[in-house]
Specification:
This protein has helices spanning 7-17, 20-35, 47-51, 88-101, 112-115, 141-155, 165-169, 190-193, 203-213; strands at 38-39, 59-63, 119-123, 128-129, 160-164, 181-185. The chain has 221 residues and is an alpha/beta fold.
Length: 221
């Protein structure tokens, strides 16, 4: 499979692309896309990196898996294509955004405007077979995206990481907390949110405060 990724990331991750596990992963992805309906579209698999070049990353949000419904996934975690209904987790993200920043609920669920401002919207697994959540896990994507997180931690300073839910919180061990900010909360999924682990976390205002503290422009959420 051709790796369609921004040149800034190509430079940082080239050694990863040459490793046996990654070549095996690309062969797996090629086979899956050739024989099954998979998401996102092949050309959108690396969208998170193409919308947010390495040198522009100032905030990272970590998701787990792309949406597995038709037309939803667009290569950015929690994001859906324009015109798609908002999945439950995204609805809860937008509700928290409303109450935290007193902003109107967004009409589009496409988070590309966040990505363009330096928010890396990174799923741990970048592909999925239609209708089968988690179907492309443990094939090598997690090894790759862990290395992405570690590279950001090692090579940059003052990045804000928003870790939502247990899965994302486990990634904290890859991040140097002495030079980056880690903000954790429950997951925005209804199960977690309805138990009181999501609403009221004020993650968006907290993240902007941290960015402003180091002289970085806040995100227009």
């Amino acid at each position: 499979m051709q790796i369609n990724i921004h040149s800034s990331w190509q430079k940082m991750l080239q050694s990863e692309f040459e490793k046996p596990y990654f070549k095996s992963l690309m062969a797996f992805v090629d086979h899956e896309y050739a024989n099954h309906t998979c998401y996102p579209k092949k050309e959108a698999i690396f969208n998170a990196f193409n919308w947010t070049p390495f040198d522009q990353v100032k905030l990272v949000i970590i998701g787990q898996d792309p949406y597995h419904g038709a037309g939803q996934a667009n290569g950015l975690c929690f994001s859906v294509n324009d015109g798609m209904a908002h999945p439950p987790s995204l609805r809860n993200i937008f509700k928290e955004l409303e109450s935290d920043l007193n902003k109107p609920y967004p009409t589009s669920g496409n988070l590309d405007q966040w990505a363009k401002q330096g928010v890396l919207l990174l799923n741990a697994t970048l592909t999925v077979r239609a209708g089968i959540a988690g179907s492309h896990q443990k094939q090598g994507w997690e090894t790759f995206t862990d290395q992405v997180i570690k590279t950001i931690s090692d090579q940059k300073n003052n990045v804000v990481f928003l870790l939502w839910g247990g899965f994302a919180k486990n990634k904290a061990k890859l991040i140097n907390a002495s030079k980056h900010t880690i903000i954790t909360s429950g997951h925005p999924s209804p199960l977690s949110a309805n138990r009181g682990y999501w609403f009221g976390n004020k993650n968006f205002s907290k993240a902007n405060f941290q960015l402003e503290q180091v002289g970085v422009d806040p995100i227009v959420w």
